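Handout, page 2. Input:
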Amino acid sequence: MNPYLTREGLEKLKKELDELKSVKRQEVINRIKVAREQGDLSENAEYADAKDEQSFIEGRILELENLTNKAVIIDADVTHHDVVSLGMTVTVDCGGRTLRYTIVGSNEADPSQGMISNESPLGRAFLGKRVGEKVQVMVPKGEMECMIVDLRQVAA
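Output:
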């Protein structure tokens, strides 16, 4: 399945990819070179650490290239503005608490920033709903009822 991303999310991933390719990759290559010059590689912790980091960086580069090449941009122009969908910010009242979430693809999700995945239990529960509708959602403490009180399109 192709990843859903906002334009902002795609730009963040491209920036990270550029940083990894143009800076981090070269830094770790230099660390490996310095560690090799220290002699015996079999007991060289700095060499092993640098090789591990290189492996991580190369894996992340491949992951980001795949994500950015296959990304489906959430297009505000084709989104239904009256129902909760990808790229929308939904304000809900859950037991007297007002909460605000932006529905994004799983690669952009960051619950601490109010960005929840369309594949998460909350995201799935909200998708397709309209202002005024009540939604039952499962949370760690059990079932909770939320009412959708506002819906806004994220700026493109």
